[in-house]
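User: Second chain of the day. Same drill as before.
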Amino acid sequence: MTPIEGQPILTAAQMRAAEDRAIADGASVESLMDRAGAGVAEAVRRLAAGSPVLVLCGPGNNGGDGYVAARVLRQNGVEVRVGALGEPKTEAASAARAAWAGAVERFPDAPLEQHDISPVVVEAVFGTGLSRPLDDDVARTINALVQCARLSVAVDLPSGVDTDTGAELNPLSLPHYSLTLALGALKPAHVLQPAASVCGAVRLLDIGLGLDHIGSPRENVSADQVIARPPLFALQAADHKYSRGMVVVIGGAMPGAAALAVQSAMRAGAGYGLLFAEPGTAMPHAVVQRDWSPQALTAAIAGKPKVGIVIGPGLGRDDAAVAKLDAAIASERPIVIDGDALHLLEERHFAIFRHRATIVDRDRRVFLTPHAGEFKALFGAWTGSKIAAARAAARHSGATVVFKGPDTVIAHPNGHTNVALAGSPWLSTAGTGDVLAGILGATLFSAPFGAAEAAVWMHAEAARRLGGAFIADDLARELSAVRASR
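Assistant: Same format as last time:
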């Protein structure tokens, strides 16, 4: 079992293409099934700790994986029962069923007895590629068995989720599994909500697809990945405040939000924090404050080699805010646009961003950080895959889009996306988005080629360290420890 940080994500169609390629290169469906089932069996054997195991098999190849797992588990001395939804409908699954020498119980026509429920359940009913709801009786039976189990393991994906969107296909709520074993590669449903929560812990099993070619020009295969721990630059003896980067935060009607952003930037590693806000805003002495004017912005950043601008937290949405946004964009420095400023963007701004995206110049990059409501206001309502929606928004806007949420998706104008693992639900409190905007302002320089990914990771790591019941001010302070740990 392999942790999923940094691993590629494939859609159902891309996964089928990868399997077809492996078969063209000499593998067979049966050999892939044998590897998948054996991998599942080994993982379950270790986790079951001698407990009896119930394997639920569907009629397709996911069910075939289950039959192989049951056979290997029994060969290794584990007490195993098999429940089947019906007879296998593929040649490989039929062969796997034939190789299982034990009895097969049918469900839901002859429901498994409650008192016979196993403490360990392995669910291999449908998995990847399902596009329709489960039959209600089937869904109820699976739910009851999984909910009563001490350990529940989904093979590839829990049955009843859409592979590419992470949506639940059934009106009945799906049970939450202890573990999902992704076969060959991750799928969007492993990281997109609500399916990601249903999956529980997710681990990857290598089944011999040879996916080292992912992202190469010869294959129409995604290079999308799960965010991993970022390689932030270490400070050098010759570093000074300007070489570490200057982050300018332009505030407005609600100065507290801008104050959170600039403090977060400095605690995330920026060497200089400058806040344009109302006079008298309470701030640490380390933060420089100035009265706003376009001329003051120009003077402050003149001659500075590393300047990032953050605008939007607490900005307001009046004519003065529009003028500030236009001045910030006109500075042609890397810019993080968040909060109120997202509501002020127009097509004229996107035209500027698209032009910049054609220039190989990291000092002109643009980052948009909308939550779901801001995304809808900016790009319109969306359906289907959050990854696809973020990718389309990035291409249209010419900016890197950080589509925030429990399943944050980062999409770049070149079409590449990264997805964060589910973060702490305690981040659902006022001001945490302002903190993320400030972190991103700092990572423009400490992780220039993965600034958004690094910012999202640091944000989540600070929340993880705090545990729970924190406020945004606590999150900003915790960033010092996160950055120092690098």
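Confidence is low (pLDDT under 50) at residues 215-221.

User: Great, on to the next one.
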